[in-house]
């Protein structure tokens, strides 16, 4: 039986780097090629050596599909294409292709900033990689080769995010990437055909959560920002270059307009222009409201949000600043954080997840005293050398004074996840939409997946492979066959109920396999098409019985007996000394040795297996 | 382990023990293990368990309790193995009865945890870490773990199966006995006999390991014999894994282990080869080649292995045959007979499709011919086989002539024919196989492989004369309306490569040049940015190739038939796609490099280009284009610096005013840019100006980080370097005033401002570069080794703006803007604010600006201390072990805090 295999190299029972290998109909497809930001070494990339078996990745894979621009889904792409050497087709949607390099560049900067970083891609590699990408349009079937086809569907989540339907022959798999089943400020909800795939590979980030209404979270966010501004504080929102930052900008812009607020909102490093450009370019990928109002007013042309200059951080009075990077681990967001951390009137809002080792991670866990690399200001933290109060601890600090200092975090720290994933309800909604035969859960924590798996298993087979584990699903492919119109008409003419999809009927014909196509025709047509003569095949058998009568009498006795037991059948006694039961011919002759032993010759053209209870012989 | 970490470790163990508490991050445990591994490796003698009893308690507790989170148990097993890697540690673990339980599969099975792959991985990796000494090996054998490990070799998890294989290979190779010198018993005696002659000198292994080792080897050998040959279709996985194990072993095994393995595996291997299982071809070939290489290491190849290799090259399925031949060539051809055979196999598809008779007329020898033709008729296998064949053609063409069935030029001709067939023209292949043509026509995969092969074939011997033919096909491809961007890109690459090898343009024709011009003009306006970018890159590379090949200056122009590539590139500066704009700028730099080197006066066209570039630098919304602009000026500046040998004092005067004026603008725009790379490039430009101003001056050395690195003990030290820090006061007045003039020029050019603004930049690479350059600057003009600089130098001043970086520098210098009125000595080496004639005017205009003396600033910024910080990584504090331990503790505390609301849980999502 044909099989489909799914092996996660990443995102199997974790939310690390998505990278899933699907083998379907002899084709190997890689779904996403993400990186793990929590590592500084090779562990950040998927290990392709497990699948290549000493061969080239290009020879092994038929294509790579990237679902969206988040780094945990596309961060290892330049590594795979330019460093490992994969040279096959890479597919992603137009917006993902446009935005992906920005995120990759953003991350490359952070990496360059790290000491001893090796094995990381360059700017040129990012470009060379993006040049190889084949863009996908929504709902357009793309033929990767003669057998493999893919089709993208809208996934919400971020601009350009797509789910993908992969089909080889009659077997198919849907991969969701990250998706969102409820529309947000700038994007619509995910949607897919009732495509009944053999496997639906779904993310399960919020597998146990029924998320509170997004409106509530938005209200909460605005309330907190407003309160902080009102008391004269400054609000820092660390974000990644593109994505949820734009959603929050729309939120604040609308709120500022409505409340007529005057405090400035800044967005760092010129990203507003860039984001604006992309959202304008891909307006069709945003939600209905934005598309409708676009002509009157482009939602991404912000009136209140201005470009940030580093000197503004010292300006007195309240302000809101969106700054990169999103985990407070380097660059502008960290610089601003250091300046503002000491004032309890200020606030930092972390709108997403932060990996271990970042300041974002520490403050979200509640650390209030942070060890920092000291700058020139460090010396002011310590008592003068001649102080008499110098304790052991102070001595230690003083020794480290050239490069370390401690930062007291007095500002308010808030975590508000604005990431747009489907919750448990949303995942079930998608399952009902697509009607898959099997489910595979990825991109989630094992415990949460287990819960959802239990729910799903009431209706379907559900799997949650760990990284490196292979799920094998046996498929029962339906093979499409053309049928001749004449044969169909003949079947219809035979009477019986009209065709009903729920009640299959048997149909007889001759199956012709010719040039990779299958055709069911009547036997006559098959003979004609193939230029063959008809031959009839008859089956015979001899049965002996003891009967003292003459041969014609015996035959007559048999005829009479059959007439009595086979009611409803056509039975004839023919003048040539034979009896016919439908198409079965019976002849009687005496044995040469013993005239009382009669030999019955039975001959028939269709082999019919009768059960013992149906024996027609007396 | 530092004192703070020692204090925190027990608490961390406690947090990990409470498996109900989720860990702060999925990387935490691996990082913790990395740290402990580092400590163990650094101090191989000491036992961490002794110094930190909490570790042993932790391991014992987790192993006995089994109710911890599986990830914590997995970590504990790895930790247990790590601790047992030293004999002391091992002894302690054994004394506390932890080992038997930790590595008992039964124990984890009963706890219902063995099903979790992370437990199995922990189990294998723990054992792997521990098996570095004889006691561990004894433990391994006594617990009968070999068989269990062999079972895991076919685990459902790729990671577990692979780790099991690695582990088995580790045991057999690490503890392998080594034959004493001069003892060559190959094929003469049985293994047992050999053992008597072998002296065990394996790392850390004593004679008492031999029995244990033999036990492991016996079980493994039996397993190899039984599982190499797949009994049913479903057992391919087991055979595959066993072949991988054998491959790992043979690649590193020495006699007598190698001989034992060969003896064990010879018959089953032959059976596998004869069975012809396609899925096993590649790993099988790896094993055969490893066996072959290891046996030829001693001069004469093992006849049995040589026969296996020959069998691999006569397999019946063409696809397997091609794979085997390709594997043989890529792993290095073992002998000329087999190599020649592999070459014939690999060239066969190309020969058959194109009909180019690459294999000569005597094709009867190629018994696979008919089956190969049959296979080529199927589209999928045709494309796959021809691509493997093409990938190997460049390597084949470089092989010794006696191994080749035809000259390299014939291979090039065949590849060109194939390219023509792919684009629908089969006229050049009348003897080809028309039934196969339809499989390759329009196949992007074949086209790409063929173009790559053609690029690689450019350096083959005797092919230069084919330039015209090659260019004709490539131009056809560039012109083809259906060519996809990658095919076009590869076509350009091939053109550049062939032209770089055959720079003599007499090889080309006017018609070809004309065609190339037309196609480039067409493609530079292509709808797809990828194509436009490749075209623009092509123009730049072409210029670069011809310049580096030192051909006539206008060769690229000649080649492009008088079409002005610069004008095409100038138009590309307006491209809507920033990548294309950036490529156009880089290409312009390459195109103009020759005229820069000649020191020719800039033409009007060049002046226009410069204004456009400055416009891009100030207005372009994308960093790529702006980075390219700064690099353009770097290239211009350095090309004229390198080409002119002149005295430093006159160099600036001889430089084009257009360049010098532009450089000032570039410095000012670049240092204020939003993109960190633009700023780093701007600093590189500033460095060139520093080089030019100070080169030849005492104490100055080219290269930004030379002063940082400690000199290598055997390094050649230049005279210039020797003068560093050895200044004396016997300098002439002339030299000082000269230095002062140069210093003043640099300040006027804005170099000093660029360095200062870079120093306080939030992006570390920028501030690091700026700091390095400022130290170099300081060491040249006012080294700390002398008390005070000469008066003329000391008096040179600069202006600090009252905003942005100026404000930050002022703060660093320890002054506040409110203190500007008074001259204050803030820190021990603080800088003076004063009224200077030089910058008084600016100060008055600027309002908040202040004037400071350059030398005082350089001496007061604490540059050396700052450099110490900056050369660390951006996260060296936060990725420290202490930070990791603190994070674990904080996460544990946060989780157990009564006020924690469930809704506030930080969900790991995406980034």
TrEMBL record, chain A:
Location in or out of the cell: Cytoplasm; Nucleus
- Which Pfam families does its entry note? Beta-Casp (PF10996), IntS11_C (PF21386), Lactamase_B_6 (PF16661), RMMBL (PF07521)
List each copy of the Metallo-beta-lactamase domain by range.
16-229
Kindly state which keywords UniProt assigns to this record, in alphabetical order.
Answer: Cytoplasm, Hydrolase, Metal-binding, Nucleus, Zinc
Instruction: Give the matching InterPro entries.
Output: Beta_Casp, INTS11-like_MBL-fold, IntS11_C, MBL, Metallo-B-lactamas, RibonucZ/Hydroxyglut_hydro, RMMBL
Q: What is its main location?
A: cytoplasm
Domain Beta-Casp, chain residue ranges per copy: 245-363
Instruction: Name the coenzymes or cofactors required.
Output: Zn(2+)
Q: Name one GO molecular function term.
A: metal ion binding
Q: Which Gene3D superfamilies match?
A: 3.40.50.10890, Ribonuclease Z/Hydroxyacylglutathione hydrolase-like
Q: Which GO terms describe its cellular component?
A: cytoplasm; nucleus
Q: Among the record's GO biological process terms, what is one?
A: snRNA processing
Does the entry feature the keyword tRNA processing, yes or no? no
Cross-referenced PANTHER family: CLEAVAGE AND POLYADENYLATION SPECIFICITY FACTOR FAMILY MEMBER, INTEGRATOR COMPLEX SUBUNIT 11
The entry sums up its family as follows: Belongs to the metallo-beta-lactamase superfamily. RNA-metabolizing metallo-beta-lactamase-like family. INTS11 subfamily.
The protein in question is named Integrator complex subunit 11
Lineage of the native species? Eukaryota, Metazoa, Chordata, Craniata, Vertebrata
